[in-house]
Amino acid sequence: MMIFEEYFPQIVKSGIVLITLFVLRWSLVFTVKRVAKKSERLEHRTGLIVKLISYLIIFFLIIGFIFIWGVQIKDLGLVMSSVFAVIGIGFFAQWSILSNITSGVIMFFTFPYKIGDYIKIHDKEFPFEGFIEDIKTFHIVLRTHQHEEVTYPNSMMLQKGVTVIKPEDFTEMEARLEEEDKNVTEQAVD
Questions:
Q1: Considering the entire predicted model, what is its pTM?
Q2: End-to-end Cα distance, the chain
Q3: Which of 67, 63, 53, 66 is nearest to 22 (CA)?
Q4: What is the domain extent for residue 181?
Q5: What is the block-wise mean pLDDT of the chain (190 residues), using blocks of 10 residues?
Q6: What sign has the CA pseudo-torsion 68, 74, 80, 84?
């Protein structure tokens, strides 16, 4: 019983941190699901964002427990600076991966296109257009008019101009593309 009394303040603080972060996670997940439902996003995209929220909450929980249970700030500073130096070097090498993950989160909440939309990517060197088949953590999967599957990095979607083609405009475009395909076929036969 003596040990319990000695660590009672840390146990209470740990409980408060645990409950606070649990409530924060619940409210963030609720908000993400509400935004997803309102903007008609697919459920697995919502799952990716929820997973990222869970990772952040776990990170803050660990940091909170470290401070509550008596790790000295100077010791923690030394350890964290060493860890962040190693991680920083690793992340510098993998910067594009972090950039794509962040872009995927930004696109989930702000961009006007969703799975099933027909888009044009205005890239001078590699222009693409097609249906969005999937939006993943690192890239978007497009199905082109020639039935090719193209993966395009999320970070590039934020850097390049993208046009969403409305369904009524797509019908006209589809007729034009079929006419072009027919002309190419006729020219190949001649």
A1: 0.51
A2: 95
A3: 53
A4: 108-189
A5: 75 89 91 79 70 86 80 66 66 65 75 78 85 82 86 83 75 71 70
A6: positive
